[in-house]
Amino acid sequence: MFLTAKILGFALSGFLSVAAGFDIGLSTKCVVIPKELDMCHKIGYSEMRLPNLMGHTSMGEVILKSTTWQHLAHTDCHPHLRTFLCSLFAPVCLDTFIHPCRSMCVAVRDSCAPVLACHGHPWPHSLDCDRFPADEDMCLASLTKEYKHLHKVLPKPACQACPAVEEFFTHKRVLEVFCANNFAMASGTALIYDEEMTTHKLLWSDPVCDIEVPERLSSSYEQLKCYHLVERCVHVPAREGSEEEILLVHSLEHLEVAKSTQTMNDEELKRVSGNYDAFFFHPNTYRCARLAVGATLQLVDAVMSGKVCNGMALVRPPGHHSQRNAANGFCLFNNVAIAAEYAKLKYGLQRILIVDWDVHHGQGIQYIFEEDPSVLYFSWHRYEHQEFWPSLKESNYDAVGLGKGEGFNINLPWNKVGMGNSDYLAAFFHVLLPMAFEFDPELILVSSGYDSGIGDPEGQMNATPEVFAHLTHFLMQLANGKLCVILEGGYHLKSLSESVCMTVKTLLGDPVPQITGEMAPCLSAIESIQNVRAAHKPYWKWLMYEDTSFLQNLSTSSHLLKKTNTNPSTEHESKMPSNDETVKVERFLELHMKNILFPVPPIKTATTTDAKVSAHLLPVPVHLVKEMDKTEIKALVSGSYADLVKEDKTLLSLGSILAILDKIMKKEVCNGIVESPASSVAVALRHSVRLGFQRVLCIFVGDMQIIPNTEDGKILMIHICEKEQSGKSSSKHYISLNWKEDAEGNDFFSAVLGFILPVAYSYQPNLTVIAVGPNRSLGISEISLLFALLQGLAESRILAMIEDTERNLMQSLAKALVGASAPHFGVYVPPTQEKVNKIKILRDQFQQEWKMLQCSVKDGISRN
Ligand code: Q9C
Ligand code: ZN
Asked: Cα of 491 to ligand 2 centre, how many Å?
């Protein structure tokens, strides 16, 4: 992680002042990105700058110039070698210049020149270290202290044992090997907060508006400080949104009315406020609302320019209810809608996803983008058959968008209060995430209201703060991680601030807390999910073969009838949460957060001391663990697995596995990756259980020789292979999923979202083992997807066991585990009918046991 964090971007002018000696004319040249450099395409730029520190104008030229030394990349001569070489000629995205400092060059040269000498080549003039600036603040510096600690001994090649080298044949390959995405990936999390936005407040008594208080902002910020999250974020200042920016969405008339309130007295303010449904003006409201818009745009700029990879803006007033010509529901300007228009205009984006997890329907956003296919809007909201504010017919699931925008508006109405973690997760698995992966957004904006959380007087829902960590984690897997979270509602101060913290913590890359409690969506949630799937079936390829049909009679309809008959006064009483309830939730959360939060292990990823392994994992910073010695392992591996210990190779890998498991158990490391024969998996699983992991989820990809015993329920095995293996039929704890990767692209999304994740979340493992054996039927893209999404489980405790022939796989997975590369899952392709049917059969078979699989109500199934 610190590798990328070390990379300093600076403006062109800064570059020019230190770059004397380089060919400036060429280094500032914008060129069209060749197709094979998809790391830059991913970011959304069609042009880039060539840093051109070697005086080259094209990749072809650079490859010619580097023939004598390019094979250095495959030696282990210095941990920063690839970074150094990449910085010399990699295309630079985002107008950010990257180049090495003299100290880095010297360090690399001192270690690597002997390797070149070994092969009969001198250190090339083009890599002369005097050409590079000495100022360490301005460029990629040499080894940091931590790095020295991790790699104490750099190999000193001797002429008798020249390191083996590999030749490259294509431009693409050269770049891949040198650059490995390092420079295309932004890192860091922006946090935007400006105290001035607490000056907007209600000046008279109004029971409808009195929950939208300044403390919503200040207490969230205080809580962030309390968890030391503020200091881990990149501070980005707010600014005022310009009139031009506001007019991207709003009418001039609306802007003028808002502007005119600045000089009004209380009485006039109250009168203007009365023109809207649930809004109040304060003399500083206009200024705050402009800051809220500007803060949101600053966040979009920080993310789109690559300054950070994600971030959160704490703003007031909120935005998602406000409309072209009207304030509404505490909102004056539609911050998120303006941001989407701005991003389209300034960065030429063609696909933006807006996720609105606020408990209210952001009807303002819906209206603005209803006919726009470039903005996919998803909102879940308390609806109660149109009883709940804003009580619109168009908040129901059948409002799917209009004209060209048909299919790009997704409403998931909740017809009951009390929705909780399982309901929200089910909505993500069975509705939002499959749409989002098919849509493939370039940027995600979250209308992040926390009134959908527990204790909120408006929402009356039950979801606990950690569910927002999971929702955030899922969204981080899309749009190359470009995620902007913008505050909307949230009126229980404690619930709000804890949820904000869970979101920011997750954006920063911390492991996600486990969700506790029964995992099963409620009947009413399943009904809503079924109906929105049915409504969207005509528009989405992934839904094409799903058997979704509308449910006419909802379990909540009778409740609606009953409600209209009740005495309004008693109804009012039961609806209003008492002060008592607020305090009760406060106390609950105080304890709950202590229970679920855990110290982040000091080391993210561990691997073995086996030099062969670490060599091709570099330059990813992994921690090296010393394996157990043979007698120790022999003592541990007893009984039925005795045969295994006879094989020396197996024994060695077991030694590393057991050592890493031990460190994961002790919370010294978060995850681990080892080279290991598939035959060790059964032993590793049993050993995990013996160490004290109560539920171990194992995803096994490929042929399995020894099928572990899973009868006691302490291990849940999902076995993915091309054909059913004989000898074992599926059961609750041993599930066989026959899946072969698609030649056209990645169609595994449907299996992961529709089956593997729901089963995994139902089981709630406290350790995940992902093993890849011989004859795997999944490609690197499919396995990477599995890794990315399963990291949300078991507090990110993952042990990866990979066959020793899988060098490429090993390298990409190591990067995924360390968190050093943006997610990359290949091209989305929708699943074939045959594959959809496969999932359907499995879902039917297991949904009574693993309830998160449920996404439709079948006749004859009565639950809850
Ligand atoms: N009887 C946000 O959460 N309630 N706004 C009005 C009228 C308004 C919520 C009730 C709730 C607005 C951003
Ligand atoms: Zn709300």
From this structure: 9
Distance in angstroms (rounded) separating the CA atoms of residues 572 and 553: 27
Q: What are phi and psi of 527, to 5 degrees?
A: -60, -45
Residue 546: enclosing H or E segment and its boundaries? Answer: none
Closest CA to 688 of 650, 656, 649, 714: 714
- Residue partners of 483: CB distance under 8 A and separation at least 6: 303, 309, 310, 311, 444, 446, 472, 475, 476, 507
Ligand 1 within 6 A of CB of 208? yes
Exposure b/e, 272-311, CB count within 10 A at least 16 = b: bbeebebbbbbbbbbbbbbbbbbbbbbbbbbbbebbbbbb
| Residue found under tokens 């320019």 | 305
**Residue-level pLDDT at 566:** 46
Indicate the DSSP class of residue 468. Answer: H
Distance 320 CA to ligand 2 centre (A): 8
Least confident window among 64-73, 752-761, 772-781, 782-791 = 64-73
Average confidence (pLDDT) over 507-533 = 96
| Residue 738 backbone phi and psi in degrees, to 5 | -90, 115
Give how far Cα 245 sits from Cα of 200, 240, 297, 338, 342, Å: 21, 10, 9, 7, 7
> How many residues are there in the chain?
864
Answer whether 389 contacts ligand 1 (Cβ < 6 A).
Answer: yes
Q: Which ligand is nearest to the CA of 316?
A: 1
Phi, psi of 667, rounded to the nearest 5 degrees = 65, 30
The torsion angles phi and psi of 127, rounded to 5 degrees, stand at: -105, 20
- In whole angstroms, give the CA distance from residue 294 to residue 300: 10
Q: How far apart are CA 810 and CA 804, in angstroms?
A: 9
pTM for the model stands at 0.81
Please tell me the residue having the least CA distance from ligand 1 atom 12: 329
- Give me ligand 1 centre to Cα 589, in Å: 24
- Mean pLDDT on 841-852: 97
Ligand 1 atom nearest 451 alpha carbon: 3
Task: Answer yes or no: 151 catalytic.
Answer: no
More confident residue, 634 or 105: 105
Q: What is the DSSP string of 748-807?
A: THHHIIIIIHHHHHHH--SEEEEEE-TT-SS-HHHHHHHHHHHTTSGGG-EEEEE-TT-H
Q: How far apart are CA 763 and CA 269, in angstroms?
A: 54
Instruction: Tell me which residues have their CB within 5 A of the ion that is ligand 2.
Output: 358, 360, 449, 451, 489
- Band the pLDDT of 860: cuts 50, 70, 90: very low
Nearest-atom number in ligand 1 for the CA of 320 is 13
Strand pairing category for 375-382 and 409-414: parallel
Q: Is 151 helix (H, G, I), strand (E, B) or coil?
A: coil
At residue 28, the pLDDT reads 41
Rounded Cα distance, 853 and 303, in Å? 35
Whether residue 123 has its Cβ less than 6 Å from ligand 1: no
- Strand 234-235 and strand 375-382: the pairing is unpaired
Q: What phi, psi does 608 have (nearest 5°)?
A: -90, 170
Q: Is the peptide bond before 830 cis (omega within 30 degrees of 0)?
A: no
CA of 708 to the centre of ligand 2 (A): 49
C-alpha torsion sign, points 826, 827, 830, 835: negative
**Residue 200, exposed/middle/buried by CB under 10 A (0-12, 13-18, 19+)?**
buried
Query: Atom 8, ligand 1: which residue's CA is nearest?
Result: 329
CB-ligand 1 contact for 846 (6 Å cutoff): no
What pLDDT sits at residue 645?
A: 61
Helix, strand and coil percent figures for the chain, each rounded to 5: 45, 15, 40
**pLDDT per residue as tens digits for the range 721-772:** 998 776 678 899 999 999 999 988 899 999 999 999 999 999 999 999 999 9
For residue 451, how far is its CA from the centre of ligand 2 (angstroms)? 6
* From 74, 151, 321, 470, active-site residue: 321
